Amino acid sequence: MSSAGAVSSPEVKYMKTCPIGRSGVSVSPVGFGGVELGPYSGEEPDVSRATAVIDAALESGVNWLDTSENYLDTHNETLIGAALAQSRDELVVASKVAPSAGGSGGGSGFRRDQVHAACRASLRRLGREHIDIYFLHWPEKAGVPLEETWGTMAELVEDGLVRAIGLSNYSLEEVERCHAQRPVDAVQDGLNLIDYLDNRAAFTRYGELGIAVTLFDVLSSGILIERTREQVLAAWETFTAMGFRHPLLAPDKVDRSFAVADGLRPIAERLGATVAQVAIAWVLHQPGVTAALAGTRSPSRARENAEAVRLDLTGSLQEIEELIPLGPAFARDDQFKADASIRSAEATSHDVDRLEAFSASFSGSVILPSHDRYEEARKEHNGLIDKRPALIARCRGTTDLT
What we know:
Mean pLDDT: 82
Strand order of the largest sheet: 3-4-5-6-7-8-9-10
CATH topology of the domain at 18-228 and 273-323: TIM Barrel
Largest sheet: 8 strands, parallel, barrel
Number of strands: 10
Distance between the termini: 15 Å
């Protein structure tokens, strides 16, 4: 455990699982975010470490992990495939196909032949006969109709290559369009006590539609874990050197971001838990939410994250909710236009890596109290919202931020 007093139960072997739509796939409330395993630029793949971390998660009741063809230029899938071959138990595996370079991404693309080829390539890298949950990673802008791509995803299910299909980083309107064509089994988007708070309304709606909601960035890129402000800022120095400053760590937001984290510490201590466990447990209490992803390179932290499901927040939810107004979501948002100008300037940059990092991480990180303003920013950004994992994956030597 990363702190004294953390919930510790090495004997835990089972979590109640939750259905992914009507697909027949079920997942534990805590899943493993595979991108943290690397290999990052300049690293050799560490299969032994990856296997040890995955096994630790399995021993704690976690039954699924998440990756993408777009994580580390497919190398993350390859590493996970090698680790799964050595792991003692079977895991539910989620992966994603991403837009092509011409469609705002670095993946295979969303045309029919591209999606089919991408799925088969992911299966080879993962060493599996089928992918349990397959997502469209984020919206593309190359002009491929969403309905066409969604129809292709349905074909993958019919062909037995995929068991469940979903949408990652899509708007409620887009999800409902797809759901009317062929039921959406799952969505994936962000939520934590500091960021993505406006997503909660959509998550409630997804629950009403029978769509499973899986979450990333539940620990706010390392802000909501057992680290001091100085440690978190030091971990982000690599990104700052690249010319990117995390929006929640910007000078006008950093104090409010850590006000939430600092307010969480005495609550966690009283509950005999870590800050990370409380943060994970809180998102799992939100209406419509099915499961939360948390990644790490540490077996002990994998166990710690899994144990968050055992934390009873019944008597603490109101106190936790009262921390939210301390965060940047409720600060004056006079910077919105300035932030938009920055994004516009970045969009003209020829530095593809820096643009991808900036685009992948903005994702509405400047929280907008107004739902309309949130949707405005989201549409303006063309749905490029799968954020920090992609950014982390591109930065050498920077690990375990979440």
